[in-house]
Amino acid sequence: MIPYGRQSLDEDDIAAVVQALRSDWLTTGPEIEAFEKAFVGIAGSSHAVAVSSGTAALHAAMFALDVKPGDEVIVPAFTFAATANCVVFQGATPVFCDVDPSSLLVSPAEVESKITSRTRAILSVDYAGQPCDYDELRVLADRNGLALVADACHALGAAYKGRPAGSLADLTAFSFHPVKHMTTGEGGMITTNDPDLAARMRSFRNHGIQTDLHQRAKAGTWQYEMTELGYNYRLTDIQCALGRSQLRKLPGWVDRRREIARRFDSAFEGLDGVTPLQTRPERTHSYHLYVIQVDPKVVDRGAVFGRLRASGVGANVHYMPVHLHPFYRERFGTGPGLCPTAEAAYELVLSLPIFPALSREQEQVVIESVRSAVGK
Q: Which residues partner with 119 through β-bridges?
């Protein structure tokens, strides 16, 4: 089975991990700061805070903004559950808004319609690896005194009007899960230009303790104080060593993803029943996912999914709209009809395999399998 995504690891990565294992530090050591410093060069931000997952990154962002019970955060319905869960973790309410049907990116007009006196932040999602309309979202945020947070877990290596993901919002979350652009096994990062927000997130990832062991050693003291309720969201030196090694190869991997996407675009152009998602102007897409929409008037999406899997192509569906999950229906009373475009898209989308190690032969298998599955 050709998976929809998978990690790329080489001997340099293995050597970096072995070196970390042989060092004096397995966690809270020098590799964390080294990884964070290397990451800001890719992200275009002043600060980067490494954490244990993309979900932890989103949670840290909500904590840093002091999102709390009674607050609302606007979240696109078409995303992974963690985007909304991070709001619930803080006791606040996610307010789901609809997306643009051609790109499945959050609609600024829909965002504007959801703003109330309780809104604390806008949480955008760079679905599939394409940045949202950040100029419009920034105007909305500034006009209404809101924070702008980017879930860029799909968008490492992407850019909007020449500005890299990581520099487009007040806080930006990334994921290093194995199917993403690079991996630390599990892991995440939050970028920001605000030193106070960065400091708050560093405390949050370490139980809410204001000083770490290195700061205490420098000050010659053993004393520490937990000033807020935090979590153990630390990333290990082992993982950060792998991350630094992976980061050096990121530009080539993103280029390879774009090359595969161009070939798929060309192959599916004019193919009846199949429409790739639209790429907006002035975006540099990084293609965590390659998503097609299947026209139900031509062919059944479920049948296409089954035929692709039977032919060895690991197609997948990303995502069920969050407001349709049982937890959100029961806790917040959401349900069908709330975000009709997202709900309609859920019935149409398929994610096709795309990752740097996908061979030209495998690309052709995917293309021919899609054509066969839609009866062409």
A: 72
Q: What is the DSSP string of 87-114?
A: HHHTT-EEEEE-B-TTT-PBPHHHHHHH
With contact defined as beta carbons under 8 Å apart, do 373 and 311 qualify? yes
| Interacting residues of 113 by C-beta distance below 8 A, sequence separation 6+ | 97
By annotation, the residues acting in catalysis are 180
> CA separation (Å) from 259 to 178, 262, 265, 354?
20, 5, 10, 10
C-alpha 168/C-alpha 192 separation (Å) is 9
Locate CATH 3.40.640.10 in the chain.
11-247
Q: Which CATH architecture has domain 11-247?
A: 3-Layer(aba) Sandwich (3.40)
Considering the domain delimited by 250-373, tell me its CATH architecture.
Answer: Alpha-Beta Complex (3.90)
Distance from chain centroid for Cα 7:
16
Give the pLDDT confidence of 257-282 residue by residue, as tens digits: 999 999 999 999 999 999 999 999 99
pTM of the model: 0.96
CA distance 110 to 77: 11
d(CA 38, CA 34): 6
